[in-house]
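Example complex used in Figure S2.
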Amino acid sequence: MERILDKGRLGAWVAALADWTVLAPAMQDGLWAYRPVAGGEASLTLGHPNTVQPPKGQSFPQREVFFTFDETPDGQPRLTPLVPRPGPRLVFGVRPCDGQGLTHLDQVFGEEAPDAYYQARRGTLAYVGLACNSPPSRHCFCTSVGGSPFGEAGLDVLMIDLSDRYLVRALTPVGETLMTAGQGVLTEAGADDRAEAQQRRLAALAHPQRAVAAPQAVPERLKAGFGSALWERLAQPCIGCGICTFLCPTCHCFDINDEVASQSPVCGSRVRTWDSCQFPDFTMHTSGHNPRADLGARLRQRVSHKFLYYFENHGVFQCTGCGRCIIACPVGIDIIAVVNQVAAEAAAMPPADS
Amino acid sequence: MIDPEELRTRARDLLEGGQVRAVIGYRRGSRGWAAEPVVITRPEEAQDLVWDPSCVHNLALYLVQDRRRRGALRESTDRPIGILAKGCDARAIVVLMQENYVQRDEVYIIGLSCESSGMLDERKLAGAAEGIDPQALEAVDFEGDAFVLSSQHQQWRLPAAGVMAERCLECRNPCPKVHDTLLGKEPREQERRGTASAPTMSDPFAELQRFEQTADSAAARWDFWSRQFDRCIRCFACRSVCPMCYCEECMVDSISFTVTPDTTAQEKANRLRWIERSASRSDNIGYHLTRALHLAGRCIDCGECERVCPVRIPLRLLNTKMERESRERFGYEPGASVEVAALLASFRDDDPNDFIR
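Predicted assembly (711 residues):
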């Protein structure tokens, strides 16, 4: 299903989606962030390059309470499970790289060991994407990591900006429902609209982007470069913060702790929080030994997880080329340069068996 | 202003002559105009060093990293490490020396005077002038009281004060007081103040004063800070970038809790955690306020914590508040002199409080 939405009627479509809590990018405190849209908001525009944080937190929040625990009056331990039951939520204006990122989260939390908390949140979420006519940042590199500025993965609807209007395309049954709900606002798409959308797509694909070089060879070369001295050198300016992982649309590592509110009587909650491979205690063993004791080993882990281990497990890169880790790194660590340099060094090495 | 070539020559000579084992400086990164920190060890690498308004980072952090790395490798050295230091970086190095974290003879300080200029605030660039796309810039440079910004096809000359980092506008010592060699000149007060129509320097604590005037009640400040701290994602970039945050174990980590075969489940469960991992309002406030108090009399206002924050929490307000307290109550200025005892490690007979005497 394809329809046309006049730009001025975006708010009217949102108003027609009264069953949903709608989130859209808004500028607040100097940041683009997904925020709830007040009903029938006429000022809603999708003017964002991309949001500072991806929509990841909607299905994988930074803090998730698994259950609470306490004592019954007769001193017996008691657990109270807390599986979230959110109402339907709709996230507007998701860029294709972030849509792609959602598919990775779905794999991790849905395939081998379905995660009840993630599933409960994901099940009532829908995503309306916004194609990138040109790269929102100079550090976008989606096309070299298997994505596309017009990519549809992970999204229910894709909107394509045609200057004064959007071409709106349903990608899933949920997407069709959303468009049906807006039938008073959405109008028929004509052949010329489709042709224009296609032109935009070709122009976007032709737009120069930074790139991971020879991507098909990257996993093998990173494997060969595991022991490279480059890791330590490239991590030299690293300060060891969690920005790169916490702003990443696909990083999903977490920690689980009991937050004890009271020892006597015992009560508290078991909580899952985001964790980062860049933190010093991430791989700290209970013995005190840390297999990734230095920043080079941690940079290697972050990059190899995205471009080697995840590829080995799922056949795709985990990185979607959104560029957030490059833009926000306080000291200029650049994942494209890191991958390219380690891979180039490995490519120049003689094969191990010669 | 300092000619970067002069800086490269100085660094090359020091490495060639073996006076230093490495030089901590800035080079051009792979992601455009912004400089990035680098540690060079070979004389020929000196040609990569740069000096321009994007040299924002406080390099004193890398003295801390150097000490940690050498400690982990049990590496001893008889030669100092060279470091480029702006006025603020040098103040941070002085605090590390006052606290005996770094010894004076372990460091060779190549002082860089910002003179009457300062560092560019990337966030002020957007909308600073017609047609500037911060993303398209390729280079930034000093030119008197202006910054020159260049893209591939265009050049802009902007009054520096309009896009300079707030902490630079409020800086009292743009020229390092402690150094082994100095590049650039100590600016005269008049040069730093600029002209009435184009002032380059604002009053110290100007931003703090603006905040206090806007949020002038306890309720207004609680609202303001709740809103700021609610955004915190606990990436700890503010802590990680801070040269004063050198504790082996931070209150937010639990890395020294060692488990032996005798450790009971009870002990594991009850290990001390000052602040939970959850990015909740109370834990975020606990983290930020504890950190601010730990920096009282130590923070030299390099502003790095605020610059690196991905969600724009105005952390300088907390730190300059503590700085003003230490100045007004104790006449103490952090990082002014290696010889002066650190504020929290000193005692004076004329202390205004009774309880301490």
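The two ends of chain B are 49 Å apart (CA to CA). Residues 315-330 of chain B form the longest helix (16 residues).
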